[in-house]
Amino acid sequence: MVDLDDTLCNTWEAGKYTIIRLFPHLLRKRKFKALFYILTARYRELEQSRELLVLDLDKLLQRIMERVYSRVKREDLEEMLELVDRTFFSNLKLFPDAKYFLEELKKINAKLVLVTDSSTYWQRKKLEYLGIKDYFDGIIISGETGHSKLDPHNFLLARRMFPNEDEVYMVGDRDDTDMKGGKAVGAITILVKRGYFKGKRAKYADYVVKDLIEALEVIKREHEKRDKA
Ligand SMILES: [Mg+2]
């Protein structure tokens, strides 16, 4: 099982560029309260929001703007959305080790299931754009199941896709979703320290690694151990 955002691609980085690009737009539109919201990092309050992890980008942006303003004009929102979408995708890319990681796993006949938060539209667009869709034997998206990765539901779904596989790994960047969920279904959990959650303490990770090359080494090592046993 593998996570997408900040594990395989630079979502947080692309998101940061997008936020920076929003500044002049918000200034021009005299949306000072929204600027203040971003500058004081109040968006951190959204980290634990289950809703945030299943919503489409337009709904999300609307929710955030409605937190700041009681009323938001439709055309203001659409203009922002267009800017966000364009800036985000022009900055989104796979991490340099992502393709190698996926290809090497294919070579050892691993079944790959993507378990990812966010909306269907947004995540499928990312997969299309990054050109990695065909690597996966299964794709589980929170927007489609109605459950965020804060609860084990999606990991159970992934697990049930291949009930005969007794060697399971979860590779992701977030401890309280990816690692916790992986643990809940008996996976060996590998935390890749990148992106927004890089500085957080890991409670549920069996291994903490700096990139996907190291994650792959862990998997190969564990795999050999089992082969010998
Ligand atoms: Mg992630």
Describe the structure concisely for a colleague.
This protein is mostly helical and 229 residues long. The chain has helices at residues 11-28, 32-39, 57-68, 74-91, 98-107, 120-130, 142-145, 153-161, 175-184, 212-228, and strands spanning 113-116, 138-141, 169-172, 188-192, 207-209.
- Give the low-confidence spans: none
The percentage of residues in β strands lies in 5-15%
Structural class: mainly alpha
Tally the helices: what do you get? 10
Helical content class:
40-55%
Q: Cα-atom Rg, whole angstroms?
A: 19 Å
Strand order across the largest sheet = 3-4-5
Q: How many discrete domains?
A: 2
What CATH calls the topology of the largest domain is Rossmann fold
**Any ligands, ions or cofactors bound here, and which?**
magnesium ion
GO biological process, one term: small molecule metabolic process
GO molecular function: metal ion binding; phosphatase activity
Cofactor: Mg(2+)
Protein name: Phosphoglycolate phosphatase
3D structure, described in words:
This protein has 229 residues and is mainly alpha-helical. The chain folds into two domains: 81 residues; 131 residues, 3-Layer(aba) Sandwich (Rossmann fold), CATH 3.40.50.1000. The chain contains ten helices and five strands. The strands form two sheets. Strands 3-4-5 form a three-stranded parallel beta sheet, sandwiched between helices. Strands 1-2 form a two-stranded parallel sheet. Helix 1 packs antiparallel against helix 2, helix 1 packs antiparallel against helix 4 and helix 5 packs parallel to helix 10.
